[in-house]
Recover the amino acids of this structure.
C-alpha cells in the first residue's frame, strides 16, 4: 500500500491519497501563525488578462511584442505561431506543493519542431505572486492541466530564463511562497515489508518563511484537533507531532 501526497487546490496545505480516496489535512484553529509582518514590494503596472497574437516563424528568431516570449527556431519553419499570454490576478497555476507566478504562456505552432528550438521567457516583478525566485523552476504542460517541472531549481530573480525544447505548448514559472511554504522529507507512506498493514514511514514537514507552528513541542496536532483529517483508511491513526517551532513529524499507526 502506498499513500502519496498530491497538490490540493481547496485546502492549499497538503493532501494525500490512496486508491480513489484522499486523506485531507487542512488548516484548522490556527495550525500555523505569522511571526513577523510581510511587506510586499511595489509592483509595476502593465496590461493584465489574456492577450493573443500570431506571428510567422520561418527560420529566424521571433519575439512576440512585449508578451515575454522569444523563439529561435534553429532555421526551422514553424509556420503561423500563436501565443496566448495570461497574466494578472487569479492566473497562477496550482502545481505540486506550490503555485506558479501570475503568468502563463500558451504557444501553438502551425508546424511541429523537428529539432530543439530555443525558447526565452520573460516576465515582470508584478507577476511574481509573492514567489521566491531564488529557487524557481520552469514547468510545462501539453494540455494546461497536467504540469511537469522541466528544469532543476534555479535563481530566476532576473525575471527571465531560456531553455531548449522540441515541444511548444504551455509554460509557467514556479517558486516557493515568500510568506510561508512547506517542505516535505517524503511524499509517500509505504507499508512495511511484513505485509501486515503496518506503516513504518515517517514524513517530516517543515514550515519555511515568516510562520511558525502554533503549538508546543511534543504536542500531537491531530489529537489536539488542530488538523482536520478525512478519508483516512480504516484501522489507521494519524499522529502529527511537533518537533520544534518549524517542524512536525507525521506517522500513520
Amino acid at each position: 500500500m502506498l499513500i502519496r501526497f498530491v497538490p490540493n487546490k481547496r485546502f492549499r496545505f497538503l493532501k494525500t491519497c490512496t486508491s480513489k480516496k484522499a486523506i485531507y489535512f487542512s488548516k484548522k484553529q490556527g495550525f500555523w501563525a505569522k511571526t513577523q509582518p510581510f511587506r510586499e514590494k511595489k509592483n509595476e503596472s502593465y496590461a493584465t488578462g489574456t492577450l493573443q497574437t500570431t506571428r510567422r516563424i520561418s527560420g529566424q528568431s521571433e519575439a512576440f511584442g512585449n508578451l515575454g516570449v522569444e523563439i529561435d527556431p534553429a532555421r526551422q519553419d514553424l509556420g503561423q505561431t500563436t501565443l496566448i499570454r495570461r497574466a494578472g490576478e487569479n492566473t497562477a497555476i496550482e502545481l505540486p506543493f506550490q503555485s506558479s507566478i501570475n503568468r502563463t504562456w500558451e504557444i501553438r505552432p502551425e508546424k511541429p519542431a523537428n529539432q530543439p528550438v530555443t525558447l526565452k521567457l520573460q516576465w515582470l516583478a508584478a507577476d511574481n505572486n509573492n514567489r521566491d525566485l531564488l529557487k524557481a523552476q520552469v514547468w510545462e504542460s501539453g494540455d494546461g492541466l497536467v504540469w511537469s517541472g522541466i528544469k532543476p531549481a534555479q535563481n530566476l530573480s532576473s525575471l527571465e530564463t531560456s531553455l531548449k525544447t522540441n515541444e511548444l505548448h504551455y509554460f509557467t514559472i514556479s517558486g516557493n511562497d515568500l510568506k510561508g511554504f512547506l517542505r516535505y522529507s517524503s511524499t509517500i507512506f509505504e507499508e512495511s515489508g511484513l505485509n501486515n498493514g503496518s506503516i513504518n514511514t515517517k514524513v517530516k514537514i517543515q514550515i519555511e518563511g515568516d510562520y511558525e507552528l502554533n503549538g508546543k513541542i511534543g504536542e500531537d496536532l491531530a489529537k489536539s484537533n488542530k488538523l482536520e483529517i478525512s478519508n483516512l483508511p480504516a484501522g489507521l491513526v494519524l499522529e502529527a507531532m511537533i518537533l520544534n517551532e518549524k517542524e512536525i513529524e507525521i506517522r500513520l499507526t
About this structure: Confidence is low (pLDDT under 50) at residues 1-44. DSSP finds no helices and 22 strands in the chain. Residues 183 and 206 are 5 Å apart (CA to CA). The radius of gyration is 22 Å.
